[in-house]
Amino acid sequence: MRERIEDPWGPVTPIARGAPWPARVDLQLADGLTEADVERWTPAASLLHSNGDAMEVAVRDGRIVGVRGRADDRVNRGRLGPKDLFGWQANAAPDRLTRPLVRRGGRLQPTDWDDALATIVDRCQAILGEQGPGGIGFYTSGQLFAEEYWTLTTIARAGIGTPHLDGNTRLCTATAGESLKESFGCDGQPGSYDDVLDCDALALWGHNVAETQPVLWMRMRDRLAGPDRPRLLVVDPRRTLPAQAADVHLAVRSGTNLPLLLALVRRLLDRGWIDDRYVAAHTIGLEQLDRSTIGWSPARAAAICGVDAGAIEAAAELLGTCEALTSTVLQGLYQSHQATASACQVNNIHLLRGMLGRPGCGVLQMNGQPTAENTRETGANGDLPGFRNWANPGHVAELAEIWNVEPERIPHDGPPTHAMEIFRLCEQGEIWLLWISATNPAVSLPEAARIRRILGDPRLLVVAQDIFPTETTALADVVLPGATWGEKTGVFTNADRTVHLSERAVAPPGEARSDLEIFLAFARALDLRDRDGAPLIDWTTPEQAYRAWQRCSAGRPCDYSAIGYDDLRARGGIQWGGERLYADGRFRAAPDDAESYGRDLLNGESFGADGYRALNPEGRAMLRSCPVVPLPEPPDAAHPLLLTTGRTVHHFHTRTKTGRVPELRDAAPDVWVELAPEDAEPLGIGEGDRVELRNARGRVEAPARITGSRPGVVFLPFHYGWWDLAEDDARRHHRAANELTATRWDPVSKQPTFKVAAVAVRRLAAAPVAAGAGAATGGR
């Protein structure tokens, strides 16, 4: 299976529209082993992307020795991507964290769990006595399990009472959740992966699916190779694999998604390509949408987006004349200018065409991480658990009863603190303890030099809970060794609401503990109590924690109450909410039920309970829009190019795991920069030349790849930090894409705008040898 490094997707299996997707079981075992050598197989799901690929973990002599796909699972039918196939090897990497560490005398020193927890608890108690709950913040991940998020949310919201809880899902999936709230009143993906099998048109909006969700691309590719292929629209400034397969590729200038989408919506309205009956029965806002799109002709949008007006016409015709449209959306919209407003236009297209809730008609506002959906459902992303509305007193009272605390204990006098604000409060000295679990903000957050300064501030106690040394653990005051995938049990939920149970296959190394065990030990040590004086958290095992989460979710849109561990063991992946949401045209948008009271897409201001009740008393879907505003950092003479960042098929996040896997590391060992020939030639830059990207925030050095992407846009993969570089390596702070990105965010979703930073590029040195791109072509 090593050929799957060079060909990450494997053989094509052409299928016709409406046909079932045939199984193909992918297998990777340690060298020299066969399936007969495996002692047992343990069910799991993928930790290294959001697709939710189901697999089994091979165990021999108490060690993980490989994986194979599950042929009977609805998500992948046995297929696995390269990170699935090879990523398991990282669990046994020699630099695993196996003991707690505490900083003393300026250095991290090994200690025991009692000492490490006492260090944290003593500081927490001092902060609570001196400053109150607002002095403590939590920043988590999209890679833990639902049981762990639920426990962390319970500690933060009902125990400590801090508003400062968010996840790195703020960087990848916050706009997905917010756009769904703005359009449908509530989070939750309307569509299903099976829509790919039934559609006659696919639209990928800023989504390089081939590299970010390889198995989903396998599903799409098999349809595209079939006898009645769907027409394919791709919006991406780069010529990715999906773009190469597209019927219409709109290589828009970075930051211009909203003008393009407004022109497409306008064209649907002008040509009458809308389902008048559906719109009248199930939506509000058509008149406002009509007014807000007046004047947005293909020619006007083409001038702003830098594409041909005829291509926009062709895209509108594709969208307007298809029978069944499936759309996927990801970082090309979410991490760009006017993110939520742009994502809402994709929802608008489906609402205008009446293409929701039936086979082939689905919107997938995708996630970037394996359990980002769980983060949002359980409230570990800054919202309230169960898709409840923090501004609805009835929802807060429900949670107070579930947790058996007074409603006043749960912070709800304003919006929960989003991640970028949490770090600003740390910078200003208002948060004194920041607990970071399973993420690496020193590399993943924008303006990396600023984040290093914040994490290194002696006023701030930084707790880092992880499985390996990272750029963030190096700056922490307390480091807690966690267990990872294959070493603990818990629930994953993927981007189309499919729930999987990932079970413990082997014991974690040394003194490492599961994230659930760590949070439970902290809650006991801090002695968190409910209003009757009993322990706030009464669960001790993953299944007990899951049952507590089931009770919280009961009756809410993300209702897990009928999906137990036994069901997941017997059936594999199960979708909450059924295969598709909103088949009956009824939405969770009624004022007393909605997750949000809606926001102005231009400035993020809430409509408030009264405003929302007047706007949408019947709880219909909402056609939302707003004006286009200029880029906050347009190119200029000193910084003439726009930087966009993204992903590559062989790595995940900041390479904490994938950088320790030989096959994945060797496939994409170092950062590179992609330039269009039109930009490279005037600068004297050739293939493989070493170049510098620079702006006021920092600089990055990388070899150049000359590609067919649009002029004016340069690309850097964001995965590369410096944990694998020597202390004296001059590239340590000139390797990460986020040295260049800005501390700005969308007004609604608060997601950072990673994809529109102005930069200057210059040639530093000639290529020592020709640079080979291999299979790693990056992604939006």
Please outline the major beta sheet. 7 strands, mixed
SS class: alpha/beta
What's the pLDDT, averaged over the residues? 96
Return residue spans where pLDDT drops below 50 for at least 5 consecutive residues: 770-779
Number of continuous helical runs: 27
Tell me how many strands there are.
27
Kindly report how far apart the N and C termini lie: 27 Å
Q: Summarize the amount of helix as a percent range.
A: 25-40%
Q: Evaluate the radius of gyration.
A: 25 Å
User: What would the principal axes of the Cα set say about the shape?
Assistant: globular
- Spatial strand arrangement across the major sheet: 6-5-17-16-15-7-8
User: Into which percentage range does the β-strand content fall?
Assistant: 15-25%
Kindly summarize this structure in a few lines:
The chain has 780 residues and is α/β, with parallel strands linked by helices. 30% of the residues lie in helices and 17% in strands.
List the helices and strands and how they pair.
Layout lengths: L2 H4 L20 E3 L10 E6 L8 E7 L2 E7 L12 H5 L14 E4 L2 E4 L2 H18 L5 E5 L5 H15 L4 E3 L6 H11 L10 H4 L2 E5 L3 H4 L1 H11 L6 E5 L5 H5 L2 E3 L6 H15 L4 H7 E2 L1 H8 L4 H8 L3 H13 L3 E5 L1 H4 L4 H14 L9 E4 L6 H7 L14 H11 L15 H9 L5 E5 L3 H4 L3 H8 L5 E6 L11 E4 L8 E4 L4 E5 L12 H12 L15 H12 L11 H7 L2 E2 L32 H8 L5 E2 L18 E6 L15 H6 L5 E3 L1 H4 L9 E6 L2 E9 L6 E5 L39 E9 L15
Parallel strand pairs: 7-8, 7-15, 9-10, 9-13, 10-11, 12-21, 13-14, 15-16, 16-17, 22-26, 23-25
Antiparallel strand pairs: 1-4, 2-3, 3-4, 5-6, 5-17, 18-19, 19-20, 22-27, 24-25, 24-27
Helix pairs in contact: 3-22, 4-17, 4-22, 4-23, 5-16, 10-13, 10-14, 10-16, 13-14
